[in-house]
Predict the structure.
Amino acid sequence: MNSSRPTGPLTGFTVGVTAARRREELVALLRRRGARVVEAPALRILPLEDDEALRRATARCLTGPLDYVVATTGVGWRGWLSAADGWGYGARLAEVCRRAVVLTRGPKATGAVRAGGLSETFSPATETTDGLLTWLLARDLPGRRIAVQEHGVPLDGFTAALTERGAEVIPVPVYRWGPPDDPSPLRRMAERTVRRELHAIAFTSAPAISAFLAAADGLGLRAQVLAALRTDVLPVCVGPVCARPLEETGIPVLSPERGRLGAMVRTVETALPAHGRREVRTGAGTLVLQGNAVLVDGGPPVQLPPLLAAVLRALAERPGRVLSRAELLRRVWVTGRADEHAVEAAVARLRGALGAHARLVRTVPKRGYSLLAAP
């Protein structure tokens, strides 16, 4: 039992974080609100400052005027200019871009472009490459030269659509995503998702979602992970582009209107209590269940292990109603790797964790267990 942890709007909730870049910032924001955070980087960024492909693409951009330049990410744009400086191309690249029409995908790319002394002509309100593509396809493209700064993965569809309209497209691969150095935390996160030990997972990129699902595939758990994300584990994405791999599987995703880490954390802060907070009247007063934390009659929060919290949530659905051991086993042990003796042991541990409020959990001889009902 742990009742000394500071309270906050996310006290009792466990949130998974898969981010590689700016992970520390996201984790700090969540912990500041009381959440317990499980970190499992899904990817790592492989910079291409010394990659010959980036150097060739940059040199190709300098062989003649560019008509359009597309900046898709702030970190990618800054990395491109930095690499060009290192090769002695910086001033020439800046001049070529200055004479072109610059398009940016969202505020981060816009800020990086402006910080480099340029200004954008267009940035879609949707913050998507689809918005950029729609804008470009409305122009006269035959013979136009378009440089496209990629962001982690090749933009094959984007490039193909422009090429089909007669444009010369120069993909600029500033960085790419690679697998994490240690894949085991991501596999454990998939297993925790299936066991409902997480209440939400925060995703900051579409490739991270794909990597997470691939990890689940490797364990044979893809169907179970998707089932958990449809019901008990809230998937929260930083924006609509990030959300696509999940939405394509039919999973509803929460995302803020503005694609920012702070806005995503506020979405988590609002959605999790609405989804996972329950207040019930019992024979010992008001019981508040919030994630894995329980507060009895206004007392300090008691942090429960996920399994014990799941047992208490099942009993709290209807105080006074008896749940048999078999019913609790079916509802709580979703992986099916337990028997009724595990139920008895879990109930005993739950009573121990509740301490002075142990009498809330009643044993009904030969029938099962119930939560003490209000008079």
